[in-house]
Protein backbone atom coordinates (compact mmCIF):
# COMPACT_ATOMS: atom_id res chain seq x y z
CA UNK A 1 0.00 0.00 0.00
CA UNK A 2 1.53 3.32 -1.05
CA UNK A 3 1.85 6.61 0.81
CA UNK A 4 1.21 5.28 4.29
CA UNK A 5 2.96 6.95 7.22
CA UNK A 6 5.35 4.39 8.71
CA UNK A 7 5.64 5.71 12.25
CA UNK A 8 4.69 2.98 14.71
CA UNK A 9 2.95 3.69 17.97
CA UNK A 10 3.08 1.56 21.13
CA UNK A 11 -0.19 0.04 22.26
CA UNK A 12 -2.34 1.34 25.06
CA UNK A 13 -1.11 -1.35 27.38
CA UNK A 14 2.53 -0.84 26.35
CA UNK A 15 2.23 2.89 26.91
CA UNK A 16 0.69 2.45 30.31
CA UNK A 17 3.12 2.96 33.19
CA UNK A 18 0.59 3.39 35.92
CA UNK A 19 0.00 7.01 34.90
CA UNK A 20 3.38 8.04 36.37
CA UNK A 21 3.52 11.47 34.73
CA UNK A 22 4.71 14.81 35.94
CA UNK A 23 1.86 17.02 37.02
CA UNK A 24 3.10 19.49 34.40
CA UNK A 25 1.91 17.05 31.74
CA UNK A 26 -1.64 17.16 33.06
CA UNK A 27 -3.24 20.02 31.24
CA UNK A 28 -5.42 22.19 33.46
CA UNK A 29 -8.89 23.35 32.54
CA UNK A 30 -12.09 24.49 34.13
CA UNK A 31 -13.84 22.02 36.36
CA UNK A 32 -17.36 20.81 35.98
CA UNK A 33 -19.36 18.03 34.46
CA UNK A 34 -21.19 17.66 31.21
CA UNK A 35 -24.75 16.44 31.33
CA UNK A 36 -25.19 13.57 28.91
CA UNK A 37 -28.77 13.67 27.78
CA UNK A 38 -31.11 10.79 28.44
CA UNK A 39 -33.18 10.54 25.34
CA UNK A 40 -34.93 8.26 22.93
CA UNK A 41 -32.76 7.69 19.89
CA UNK A 42 -34.28 7.41 16.43
CA UNK A 43 -35.14 3.86 15.54
CA UNK A 44 -33.55 2.44 12.44
CA UNK A 45 -35.69 2.66 9.36
CA UNK A 46 -36.82 -0.24 7.25
CA UNK A 47 -37.56 -3.84 8.11
CA UNK A 48 -34.95 -4.06 10.85
CA UNK A 49 -36.15 -0.99 12.75
CA UNK A 50 -35.86 -1.55 16.49
CA UNK A 51 -36.23 0.69 19.54
CA UNK A 52 -33.09 2.44 20.78
CA UNK A 53 -32.74 4.70 23.81
CA UNK A 54 -30.01 6.17 26.00
CA UNK A 55 -31.11 6.59 29.59
CA UNK A 56 -29.67 7.53 32.96
CA UNK A 57 -29.81 5.30 36.03
CA UNK A 58 -29.03 6.78 39.47
CA UNK A 59 -26.24 5.12 41.43
CA UNK A 60 -24.74 5.55 44.89
CA UNK A 61 -22.59 8.62 45.54
CA UNK A 62 -18.99 8.15 44.47
CA UNK A 63 -17.42 11.23 46.00
CA UNK A 64 -17.54 13.32 42.85
CA UNK A 65 -19.88 16.13 41.75
CA UNK A 66 -23.54 15.22 42.12
CA UNK A 67 -24.12 14.89 38.34
CA UNK A 68 -21.63 12.01 38.29
CA UNK A 69 -23.79 9.90 40.58
CA UNK A 70 -25.48 8.23 37.65
CA UNK A 71 -24.58 5.88 34.84
CA UNK A 72 -26.12 5.57 31.39
CA UNK A 73 -27.34 2.68 29.32
CA UNK A 74 -27.77 2.43 25.57
CA UNK A 75 -30.70 0.05 25.11
CA UNK A 76 -31.28 -1.63 21.77
CA UNK A 77 -34.01 -4.14 21.04
CA UNK A 78 -37.54 -5.00 22.12
CA UNK A 79 -38.56 -3.82 25.59
CA UNK A 80 -40.34 -7.12 26.29
CA UNK A 81 -37.28 -9.23 25.52
CA UNK A 82 -36.82 -12.28 27.74
CA UNK A 83 -33.02 -12.05 27.61
CA UNK A 84 -30.86 -8.96 28.15
CA UNK A 85 -27.21 -8.95 27.13
CA UNK A 86 -25.39 -6.31 29.22
CA UNK A 87 -22.10 -5.28 27.61
CA UNK A 88 -19.22 -3.41 29.27
CA UNK A 89 -16.79 -1.44 27.10
CA UNK A 90 -13.05 -1.79 27.49
CA UNK A 91 -10.26 0.64 28.33
CA UNK A 92 -11.20 4.14 27.12
CA UNK A 93 -14.34 2.59 25.62
CA UNK A 94 -17.93 3.80 25.90
CA UNK A 95 -21.43 2.59 25.12
CA UNK A 96 -21.45 3.37 21.41
CA UNK A 97 -18.76 0.71 20.97
CA UNK A 98 -21.63 -1.76 20.92
CA UNK A 99 -24.40 -0.09 18.91
CA UNK A 100 -23.65 -1.81 15.60
CA UNK A 101 -22.97 -5.17 17.24
CA UNK A 102 -26.16 -4.83 19.27
CA UNK A 103 -28.27 -4.15 16.20
CA UNK A 104 -26.86 -7.22 14.50
CA UNK A 105 -27.39 -9.41 17.55
CA UNK A 106 -30.96 -8.24 18.09
CA UNK A 107 -31.74 -8.98 14.44
CA UNK A 108 -30.26 -12.48 14.78
CA UNK A 109 -31.57 -13.56 18.18
CA UNK A 110 -35.34 -13.46 18.83
CA UNK A 111 -36.31 -12.13 22.25
CA UNK A 112 -33.00 -10.36 22.88
CA UNK A 113 -32.35 -6.81 24.07
CA UNK A 114 -28.80 -5.41 24.43
CA UNK A 115 -27.79 -2.88 27.07
CA UNK A 116 -24.44 -1.10 26.64
CA UNK A 117 -23.01 0.35 29.85
CA UNK A 118 -21.54 3.86 30.17
CA UNK A 119 -19.50 4.30 33.35
CA UNK A 120 -20.00 7.34 35.56
CA UNK A 121 -16.87 8.93 34.10
CA UNK A 122 -18.83 9.72 30.95
CA UNK A 123 -20.61 12.47 32.87
CA UNK A 124 -17.34 14.43 32.86
CA UNK A 125 -17.13 14.76 29.07
CA UNK A 126 -18.24 17.96 27.35
CA UNK A 127 -19.77 16.90 24.03
CA UNK A 128 -21.68 20.13 23.47
CA UNK A 129 -19.46 21.13 20.54
CA UNK A 130 -20.98 18.48 18.32
CA UNK A 131 -24.23 20.40 18.41
CA UNK A 132 -22.64 23.44 16.79
CA UNK A 133 -21.43 24.29 13.30
CA UNK A 134 -17.70 24.02 14.01
CA UNK A 135 -16.88 21.11 16.33
CA UNK A 136 -13.22 21.13 15.25
CA UNK A 137 -12.87 24.74 16.33
CA UNK A 138 -14.69 24.11 19.60
CA UNK A 139 -12.47 21.23 20.63
CA UNK A 140 -9.13 21.81 18.94
CA UNK A 141 -9.03 25.52 19.79
CA UNK A 142 -9.69 24.80 23.45
CA UNK A 143 -13.20 26.17 23.86
CA UNK A 144 -14.57 23.02 25.47
CA UNK A 145 -14.70 22.25 29.18
CA UNK A 146 -11.76 20.06 30.16
CA UNK A 147 -11.78 18.19 33.46
CA UNK A 148 -8.90 19.54 35.55
CA UNK A 149 -7.02 16.66 37.22
CA UNK A 150 -5.98 19.04 40.02
CA UNK A 151 -9.66 19.52 40.88
CA UNK A 152 -10.56 15.84 40.45
CA UNK A 153 -9.17 14.17 43.57
CA UNK A 154 -12.47 12.30 43.84
CA UNK A 155 -11.44 10.19 40.81
CA UNK A 156 -8.58 8.69 42.81
CA UNK A 157 -11.15 6.39 44.39
CA UNK A 158 -12.95 5.45 41.17
CA UNK A 159 -11.71 1.89 40.96
CA UNK A 160 -13.21 -1.49 40.19
CA UNK A 161 -15.23 -1.70 43.41
CA UNK A 162 -17.20 1.43 42.49
CA UNK A 163 -17.53 0.37 38.86
CA UNK A 164 -18.99 -3.00 39.85
CA UNK A 165 -21.43 -1.42 42.30
CA UNK A 166 -22.58 0.81 39.44
CA UNK A 167 -22.75 -2.13 37.06
CA UNK A 168 -24.85 -4.06 39.54
CA UNK A 169 -27.49 -1.35 39.35
CA UNK A 170 -27.64 -2.03 35.62
CA UNK A 171 -27.77 -5.80 36.02
CA UNK A 172 -30.56 -5.60 38.59
CA UNK A 173 -32.55 -3.23 36.39
CA UNK A 174 -32.10 -5.58 33.44
CA UNK A 175 -33.26 -8.57 35.50
CA UNK A 176 -36.54 -6.79 36.28
CA UNK A 177 -37.00 -8.60 39.56
CA UNK A 178 -35.86 -11.91 38.15
CA UNK A 179 -38.34 -12.00 35.28
CA UNK A 180 -35.61 -11.74 32.64
CA UNK A 181 -32.36 -13.57 31.98
CA UNK A 182 -29.18 -11.48 32.00
CA UNK A 183 -26.02 -12.42 30.18
CA UNK A 184 -23.09 -10.20 31.16
CA UNK A 185 -20.25 -9.58 28.75
CA UNK A 186 -17.69 -7.10 27.63
CA UNK A 187 -14.87 -6.24 25.29
CA UNK A 188 -11.19 -6.13 26.31
CA UNK A 189 -11.01 -4.80 29.88
CA UNK A 190 -14.80 -4.82 29.76
CA UNK A 191 -14.50 -8.61 29.54
CA UNK A 192 -12.23 -8.51 32.60
CA UNK A 193 -14.87 -6.41 34.35
CA UNK A 194 -17.63 -8.89 33.50
CA UNK A 195 -15.64 -11.82 34.88
CA UNK A 196 -14.78 -9.82 37.99
CA UNK A 197 -18.51 -9.18 38.49
CA UNK A 198 -19.23 -12.90 38.33
CA UNK A 199 -16.65 -13.67 41.03
CA UNK A 200 -17.43 -10.60 43.17
CA UNK A 201 -18.93 -10.72 46.62
CA UNK A 202 -21.82 -8.27 46.92
CA UNK A 203 -22.50 -8.28 50.67
CA UNK A 204 -22.42 -12.06 50.76
CA UNK A 205 -24.11 -12.69 47.41
CA UNK A 206 -21.92 -13.87 44.52
CA UNK A 207 -22.29 -11.84 41.36
CA UNK A 208 -22.80 -14.88 39.16
CA UNK A 209 -26.06 -15.65 41.01
CA UNK A 210 -27.68 -12.81 39.04
CA UNK A 211 -26.51 -14.04 35.66
CA UNK A 212 -27.56 -16.63 33.11
CA UNK A 213 -24.31 -16.51 31.15
CA UNK A 214 -21.00 -14.74 30.53
CA UNK A 215 -19.63 -13.49 27.21
CA UNK A 216 -16.06 -12.19 26.91
CA UNK A 217 -14.71 -10.64 23.72
CA UNK A 218 -10.95 -10.26 23.32
CA UNK A 219 -10.22 -9.83 27.01
CA UNK A 220 -10.48 -11.52 30.34
CA UNK A 221 -8.33 -12.82 33.19
CA UNK A 222 -5.73 -15.49 34.02
CA UNK A 223 -3.23 -14.36 31.41
CA UNK A 224 -5.75 -13.31 28.77
CA UNK A 225 -3.50 -10.42 27.71
CA UNK A 226 -0.19 -12.31 27.83
CA UNK A 227 -0.20 -12.89 24.08
CA UNK A 228 -0.30 -9.18 23.38
CA UNK A 229 3.32 -8.86 24.48
CA UNK A 230 2.35 -6.45 27.26
CA UNK A 231 1.18 -8.52 30.23
CA UNK A 232 -0.53 -6.96 33.20
CA UNK A 233 1.40 -4.84 35.71
CA UNK A 234 0.36 -6.43 38.97
CA UNK A 235 3.46 -6.99 41.08
CA UNK A 236 3.22 -5.45 44.58
CA UNK A 237 5.99 -2.99 43.73
CA UNK A 238 4.33 -1.88 40.48
CA UNK A 239 1.03 -1.45 42.28
CA UNK A 240 2.67 0.54 45.07
CA UNK A 241 4.27 2.92 42.57
CA UNK A 242 1.07 3.38 40.63
CA UNK A 243 -0.98 4.07 43.74
CA UNK A 244 1.62 6.62 44.86
CA UNK A 245 1.28 8.40 41.51
CA UNK A 246 -2.50 8.51 41.90
CA UNK A 247 -2.15 9.85 45.42
CA UNK A 248 0.13 12.51 43.97
CA UNK A 249 -2.57 13.76 41.61
CA UNK A 250 -2.30 11.58 38.49
CA UNK A 251 -5.92 10.49 38.83
CA UNK A 252 -6.63 9.99 35.13
CA UNK A 253 -4.90 7.40 32.98
CA UNK A 254 -2.79 9.37 30.50
CA UNK A 255 -1.97 6.49 28.17
CA UNK A 256 -3.64 7.87 25.05
CA UNK A 257 -2.04 11.29 25.49
CA UNK A 258 1.21 9.71 24.34
CA UNK A 259 0.18 8.72 20.83
CA UNK A 260 0.82 12.16 19.35
CA UNK A 261 -2.62 13.77 19.21
CA UNK A 262 -2.43 16.05 22.24
CA UNK A 263 -1.28 16.16 25.84
CA UNK A 264 -4.54 16.06 27.78
CA UNK A 265 -6.17 12.91 29.08
CA UNK A 266 -8.98 13.38 26.55
CA UNK A 267 -7.06 14.73 23.52
CA UNK A 268 -6.85 11.54 21.48
CA UNK A 269 -10.45 10.59 22.20
CA UNK A 270 -11.60 13.99 20.94
CA UNK A 271 -9.58 13.57 17.75
CA UNK A 272 -11.14 10.18 17.08
CA UNK A 273 -14.66 11.43 17.66
CA UNK A 274 -14.09 14.47 15.45
CA UNK A 275 -12.70 12.27 12.70
CA UNK A 276 -15.75 10.02 12.92
CA UNK A 277 -18.15 12.96 12.99
CA UNK A 278 -16.78 14.57 9.82
CA UNK A 279 -16.46 11.22 8.04
CA UNK A 280 -20.08 10.48 8.86
CA UNK A 281 -21.37 13.92 7.86
CA UNK A 282 -19.41 14.32 4.63
CA UNK A 283 -17.29 11.25 3.83
CA UNK A 284 -16.12 12.38 0.40
CA UNK A 285 -15.45 16.02 1.24
CA UNK A 286 -11.96 17.43 1.74
CA UNK A 287 -10.81 16.67 5.25
CA UNK A 288 -11.56 19.41 7.76
CA UNK A 289 -9.01 17.96 10.19
CA UNK A 290 -6.05 17.36 7.90
CA UNK A 291 -4.55 20.85 8.29
CA UNK A 292 -4.58 20.37 12.06
CA UNK A 293 -2.85 16.98 12.13
CA UNK A 294 0.54 16.72 13.84
CA UNK A 295 3.35 16.74 11.29
CA UNK A 296 4.26 13.13 12.00
CA UNK A 297 0.85 11.98 10.78
CA UNK A 298 0.24 14.44 7.96
CA UNK A 299 -0.32 12.85 4.53
CA UNK A 300 1.55 14.50 1.69
CA UNK A 301 -1.62 14.93 -0.37
CA UNK A 302 -5.20 16.11 0.34
CA UNK A 303 -7.50 13.40 1.67
CA UNK A 304 -11.22 13.14 2.28
CA UNK A 305 -12.91 13.08 5.68
CA UNK A 306 -13.39 9.33 5.34
CA UNK A 307 -9.74 8.83 4.40
CA UNK A 308 -8.62 10.88 7.40
CA UNK A 309 -10.61 8.58 9.67
CA UNK A 310 -9.04 5.62 7.88
CA UNK A 311 -5.60 7.05 8.63
CA UNK A 312 -6.41 7.01 12.35
CA UNK A 313 -8.05 3.60 12.60
CA UNK A 314 -6.81 1.27 9.86
CA UNK A 315 -4.19 -1.34 10.77
CA UNK A 316 -2.18 -0.58 7.65
CA UNK A 317 -0.94 2.75 8.99
CA UNK A 318 1.13 1.37 11.84
CA UNK A 319 -1.21 1.95 14.75
CA UNK A 320 -1.24 -0.92 17.25
CA UNK A 321 -3.61 -3.86 17.04
CA UNK A 322 -5.70 -2.76 20.02
CA UNK A 323 -6.90 0.50 18.43
CA UNK A 324 -7.27 -0.62 14.81
CA UNK A 325 -9.55 -2.38 12.36
CA UNK A 326 -9.07 -3.94 8.92
CA UNK A 327 -10.83 -1.42 6.72
CA UNK A 328 -9.05 -0.45 3.50
CA UNK A 329 -6.68 2.11 2.04
CA UNK A 330 -6.36 5.53 0.42
CA UNK A 331 -7.61 5.72 -3.15
CA UNK A 332 -4.73 5.47 -5.63
CA UNK A 333 -5.91 8.52 -7.54
CA UNK A 334 -7.49 11.83 -6.62
CA UNK A 335 -10.95 13.08 -7.54
CA UNK A 336 -11.59 16.16 -9.67
CA UNK A 337 -10.82 18.39 -6.68
CA UNK A 338 -7.46 16.74 -6.07
CA UNK A 339 -8.70 14.85 -2.99
CA UNK A 340 -7.93 11.19 -2.41
CA UNK A 341 -10.72 9.23 -0.84
CA UNK A 342 -11.02 5.90 0.94
CA UNK A 343 -11.42 2.43 -0.57
CA UNK A 344 -12.93 -0.33 1.57
CA UNK A 345 -11.35 -3.72 1.00
CA UNK A 346 -11.40 -5.14 4.53
CA UNK A 347 -13.94 -6.63 6.86
CA UNK A 348 -14.80 -3.31 8.52
CA UNK A 349 -16.14 -0.58 6.20
CA UNK A 350 -14.99 2.88 7.19
CA UNK A 351 -18.63 4.06 7.07
CA UNK A 352 -19.45 1.77 10.01
CA UNK A 353 -16.54 3.11 12.02
CA UNK A 354 -17.66 6.65 11.17
CA UNK A 355 -21.25 5.97 12.22
CA UNK A 356 -20.11 4.64 15.59
CA UNK A 357 -17.37 7.18 16.26
CA UNK A 358 -19.54 10.16 15.30
CA UNK A 359 -21.83 9.80 18.32
CA UNK A 360 -22.08 12.36 19.66
CA UNK A 361 -23.98 10.93 22.63
CA UNK A 362 -23.31 8.21 23.48
CA UNK A 363 -19.71 8.15 22.36
CA UNK A 364 -17.24 5.40 21.53
CA UNK A 365 -14.34 6.79 23.56
CA UNK A 366 -14.33 7.53 27.27
CA UNK A 367 -12.47 10.78 27.90
CA UNK A 368 -11.40 10.38 31.51
CA UNK A 369 -10.37 6.87 32.44
CA UNK A 370 -9.55 6.62 36.16
CA UNK A 371 -5.98 5.49 36.84
CA UNK A 372 -7.20 3.51 39.85
CA UNK A 373 -9.44 1.43 37.61
CA UNK A 374 -6.39 0.51 35.52
CA UNK A 375 -4.56 -0.70 38.63
CA UNK A 376 -7.51 -2.75 39.86
CA UNK A 377 -8.14 -4.42 36.51
CA UNK A 378 -4.50 -5.43 36.21
CA UNK A 379 -4.58 -6.98 39.69
CA UNK A 380 -7.84 -8.76 38.81
CA UNK A 381 -5.95 -10.87 36.27
CA UNK A 382 -4.95 -13.35 39.01
CA UNK A 383 -8.69 -13.95 39.55
CA UNK A 384 -8.24 -15.04 43.17
CA UNK A 385 -8.67 -13.77 46.69
CA UNK A 386 -5.06 -12.75 47.32
CA UNK A 387 -3.61 -10.41 49.94
CA UNK A 388 -2.89 -7.84 47.22
CA UNK A 389 -6.45 -8.05 45.91
CA UNK A 390 -7.88 -7.64 49.40
CA UNK A 391 -5.66 -4.62 50.05
CA UNK A 392 -7.33 -2.97 47.05
CA UNK A 393 -10.85 -4.00 48.18
CA UNK A 394 -11.17 -6.45 45.29
CA UNK A 395 -13.68 -8.98 46.55
CA UNK A 396 -12.89 -11.80 44.13
CA UNK A 397 -14.17 -14.51 46.43
CA UNK A 398 -16.43 -16.63 44.23
CA UNK A 399 -14.61 -17.53 41.01
CA UNK A 400 -14.66 -21.23 41.82
CA UNK A 401 -18.42 -21.23 42.21
CA UNK A 402 -19.38 -19.74 38.83
CA UNK A 403 -21.99 -22.06 37.34
CA UNK A 404 -23.20 -20.36 34.16
CA UNK A 405 -22.21 -20.95 30.51
CA UNK A 406 -19.21 -19.02 29.20
CA UNK A 407 -18.54 -17.66 25.72
CA UNK A 408 -15.09 -16.35 24.75
CA UNK A 409 -13.87 -14.84 21.50
CA UNK A 410 -10.28 -13.96 20.64
CA UNK A 411 -8.72 -12.02 17.76
CA UNK A 412 -5.15 -11.74 16.51
CA UNK A 413 -4.58 -9.24 19.34
CA UNK A 414 -3.85 -11.88 21.98
CA UNK A 415 -2.44 -14.73 19.87
CA UNK A 416 -4.72 -17.20 21.59
CA UNK A 417 -4.31 -16.22 25.25
CA UNK A 418 -7.81 -14.76 25.55
CA UNK A 419 -9.29 -18.18 24.82
CA UNK A 420 -6.67 -19.88 27.01
CA UNK A 421 -7.59 -17.63 29.91
CA UNK A 422 -11.29 -18.35 29.45
CA UNK A 423 -10.63 -22.08 29.48
CA UNK A 424 -8.75 -21.66 32.76
CA UNK A 425 -11.74 -19.82 34.24
CA UNK A 426 -14.02 -22.69 33.25
CA UNK A 427 -11.62 -25.34 34.51
CA UNK A 428 -11.38 -23.68 37.91
CA UNK A 429 -15.10 -23.24 38.36
CA UNK A 430 -18.44 -24.96 37.87
CA UNK A 431 -19.07 -23.54 34.40
CA UNK A 432 -21.32 -26.17 32.75
CA UNK A 433 -19.98 -25.57 29.26
CA UNK A 434 -17.86 -23.10 27.34
CA UNK A 435 -17.90 -21.86 23.77
CA UNK A 436 -14.47 -20.76 22.55
CA UNK A 437 -14.09 -19.00 19.22
CA UNK A 438 -11.32 -17.06 17.52
CA UNK A 439 -10.60 -15.21 14.30
CA UNK A 440 -7.00 -14.23 13.63
CA UNK A 441 -8.14 -12.21 10.64
CA UNK A 442 -9.54 -9.64 13.06
CA UNK A 443 -7.82 -6.92 15.03
CA UNK A 444 -8.96 -5.91 18.50
CA UNK A 445 -11.70 -3.46 17.38
CA UNK A 446 -12.99 -5.38 14.36
CA UNK A 447 -15.59 -7.36 16.37
CA UNK A 448 -17.26 -4.09 17.33
CA UNK A 449 -17.61 -2.58 13.86
CA UNK A 450 -17.11 -5.25 11.18
CA UNK A 451 -19.69 -5.66 8.43
CA UNK A 452 -22.65 -7.76 9.51
CA UNK A 453 -21.99 -10.60 7.09
CA UNK A 454 -18.25 -10.76 7.93
CA UNK A 455 -18.35 -10.47 11.71
CA UNK A 456 -17.50 -13.92 13.06
CA UNK A 457 -17.75 -12.61 16.63
CA UNK A 458 -21.35 -11.53 16.19
CA UNK A 459 -22.29 -14.75 14.42
CA UNK A 460 -20.84 -17.04 17.09
CA UNK A 461 -22.09 -14.92 19.98
CA UNK A 462 -25.61 -14.98 18.52
CA UNK A 463 -25.47 -18.77 18.41
CA UNK A 464 -24.38 -18.86 22.05
CA UNK A 465 -27.16 -16.49 23.12
CA UNK A 466 -29.80 -18.59 21.38
CA UNK A 467 -28.80 -21.51 23.62
CA UNK A 468 -28.59 -19.72 26.97
CA UNK A 469 -30.66 -21.70 29.50
CA UNK A 470 -34.15 -20.33 29.88
CA UNK A 471 -34.36 -20.54 33.67
CA UNK A 472 -33.99 -17.32 35.63
CA UNK A 473 -32.82 -17.12 39.20
UniProtKB/TrEMBL annotation:
UniProt keyword terms in alphabetical order: Signal
Molecular functions (GO terms): catalytic activity
Chain segments annotated as coiled-coil in the UniProt record: none
Segment forming the signal sequence: 1-36
Residue ranges annotated for the AB hydrolase-1 domain, each copy included: 84-199
InterPro entries, per the entry: AB_hydrolase_1 (IPR000073), AB_hydrolase_fold (IPR029058), TAT_signal (IPR006311)
Top-level lineage group: Bacteria
Gene3D superfamilies in alphabetical order: alpha/beta hydrolase
SUPFAM superfamilies in alphabetical order: alpha/beta-Hydrolases (SSF53474)
PROSITE patterns listed in its UniProt record: TAT
Full protein name: AB hydrolase-1 domain-containing protein
Amino acid sequence: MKNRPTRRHPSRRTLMSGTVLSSLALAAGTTGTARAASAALPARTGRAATPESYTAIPVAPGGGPTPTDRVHVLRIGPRDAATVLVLVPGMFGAANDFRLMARDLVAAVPGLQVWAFDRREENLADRAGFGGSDPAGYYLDGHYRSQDPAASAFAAGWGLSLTLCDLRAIVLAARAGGTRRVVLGGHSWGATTALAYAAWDFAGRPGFRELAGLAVIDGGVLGAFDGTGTPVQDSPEEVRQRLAAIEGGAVFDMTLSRVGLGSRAESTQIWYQLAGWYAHQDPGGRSILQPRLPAALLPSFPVSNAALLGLLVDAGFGWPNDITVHSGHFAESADSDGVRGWVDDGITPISRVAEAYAGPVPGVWEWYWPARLSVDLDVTDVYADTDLARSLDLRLYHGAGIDVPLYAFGTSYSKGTVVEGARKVAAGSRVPYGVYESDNGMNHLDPLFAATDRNTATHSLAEFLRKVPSATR
